[in-house]
Automatic annotation (TrEMBL), chains A, B:
<dbReference type="InterPro" id="IPR039420">
    <property type="entry name" value="WalR-like"/>
</dbReference>
<feature type="domain" description="Response regulatory">
    <location>
        <begin position="2"/>
        <end position="116"/>
    </location>
</feature>
<dbReference type="InterPro" id="IPR001867">
    <property type="entry name" value="OmpR/PhoB-type_DNA-bd"/>
</dbReference>
<dbReference type="Pfam" id="PF00486">
    <property type="entry name" value="Trans_reg_C"/>
</dbReference>
<keyword id="KW-0805">Transcription regulation</keyword>
<feature type="domain" description="OmpR/PhoB-type">
    <location>
        <begin position="124"/>
        <end position="224"/>
    </location>
</feature>
<dbReference type="InterPro" id="IPR001789">
    <property type="entry name" value="Sig_transdc_resp-reg_receiver"/>
</dbReference>
<dbReference type="GO" id="GO:0005829">
    <property type="term" value="C:cytosol"/>
</dbReference>
<keyword id="KW-0238">DNA-binding</keyword>
<dbReference type="GO" id="GO:0000976">
    <property type="term" value="F:transcription cis-regulatory region binding"/>
</dbReference>
<dbReference type="Pfam" id="PF00072">
    <property type="entry name" value="Response_reg"/>
</dbReference>
<dbReference type="InterPro" id="IPR036388">
    <property type="entry name" value="WH-like_DNA-bd_sf"/>
</dbReference>
<protein>
    <submittedName>
        <fullName>Response regulator transcription factor</fullName>
    </submittedName>
</protein>
<dbReference type="GO" id="GO:0032993">
    <property type="term" value="C:protein-DNA complex"/>
</dbReference>
<keyword id="KW-0597">Phosphoprotein</keyword>
<keyword id="KW-0902">Two-component regulatory system</keyword>
<keyword id="KW-0804">Transcription</keyword>
DNA sequence: CTTCGACGACGAGAATATTCATAAATAGAT
DNA sequence: ATCTATTTATGAATATTCTCGTCGTCGAAG
């Protein structure tokens, strides 16, 4: 699930992106209208998180543009209290929801979940890639209905690489995302490699894995 | 390290408390001036996180009262942008720092860390309880200089109970705090009990553990 | 084309975490 | 005081995670 976060206040953006990433969303950041439009034109996002007060104009301009072209993208408007006046009340401009600052991250999470479910139907929690089916909610994987027994770490790695398909994911990114607090983990260790190895060994039984690349000096990538 | 969070906006308070708890702070919440003063009079806090716009008055009244009596308590003021006018600029009223909403939780964490270090000197990362010394930063425990080999989970449990000494901590609290996402964990399991048991077995070798109570139907508590 | 060094793959084993079955302890009811 | 139901403690088995040593492979330099 890809999300574009349009917000000029960097700390807030970081906080939001960090939270969403940890919940399995793949995020990009834009800090202005122009950057946002640029991103939207070059990538496919499922959700747009849109702050209204941007340095080079109102987020509404972005929203209008989006609604002209990409109708399936969900838009959540973020606004300071009071900034949302009557004129635009009722979400007539085509936003799916809105949040007033300051908001709790869990609140954002709940809105997102609801919207995604509304748009994509009830089962968004499945991830299908190269014949494998990942049920994100209960950590189950199968290939052609044949269940595969992955450990939690193996599942986490598979899920994260799959969510970020076609992008190289570094070992550091995996560590930060899956293990969280980076300080607890010994960095000059090959535990990621070992988990990847074990994951591959299990997947390999079912099909060829040439799409599961090792990118030397960088990390791992799942191509689709 | 005990913190009182004075903030009437419940979602924000929850978010902050959740974050701080996960970083080893022990938090209480007050949503009004009167509740805050009540808490301050009955408990000892190291830091006061104080929102200014409260339903029954300004947080400044709380601050003034605090400065009359409890001079060693650190105070961080939380305020909406613009709410902090010139009259009170420069922290003349005795606050140690302030943050404007919206703020990033990591920013709050950094300020807290700095303030606590300023007040308590450089080494706040040791916890001493009943003869045991916990070095929080590198997961080491010792009793009379004799090192004790605890696993990470055992250390986490010991630390959390010690930080919350004299309070009963439920299994759910331990699960949420140490394992994080509660959904991943099978709740009808006794894994907490097992970790507690193993922890006790290791501590027990060095001294009597009558202060490490099991509170039937509730959880565990370390008395001091 | 060969050599060298760095990086990743791999196997095996140690350490840790979790599950499970059963025993002991506790509190309430009889 | 005894019984009973529920909660916690315990030992042991199982599963998972992480560490370590070694080997293979890739790519750059000669």
């Amino acid at each position: 699930m890809n999300i574009l976060v349009v917000e000029d206040f960097k700390e807030l953006a970081n906080e939001v992106i960090d939270y969403l990433s940890k919940n399995g969303y793949v995020c990009k950041w834009a800090n202005s209208c122009s950057k946002a439009l640029e991103e939207i034109n070059s990538n496919d996002f499922d959700v747009l998180l849109l702050d209204l007060g941007l340095p080079d104009g109102s987020g509404f301009d972005v929203l209008k543009m989006v609604r002209k072209t990409q109708s399936k993208m969900a838009v959540i408007i973020i606004t300071a209290r009071g900034e949302l006046d009557d004129r635009i009340n009722g979400l007539q401009l085509g936003a799916d929801d809105y949040l007033t600052k300051p908001f709790a991250l869990t609140e954002l999470g709940a809105r997102l979940y609801a919207i995604i479910r509304r748009i994509h139907g009830f089962t968004v929690n499945d991830l299908n890639i190269h014949g494998f089916n990942l049920q994100l909610q209960d950590y189950k994987v199968s290939y052609n209905k044949i269940p595969i027994n992955l450990t939690k770490k193996e599942f986490d790695i598979f899920q994260y690489l799959a969510l970020n398909k076609n992008r190289v994911i570094t070992r550091l990114q995996l560590t930060e995302h899956i293990w969280g607090d980076i300080l607890e983990v010994n960095s000059d260790s090959n535990f990621i490699d070992v988990h990847v190895r074990n994951l591959r060994k299990k997947l390999d039984k079912h099909t060829s894995l040439e799409w599961f690349e090792t990118v030397r000096n960088v990390g791992y990538r799942i191509n689709v």
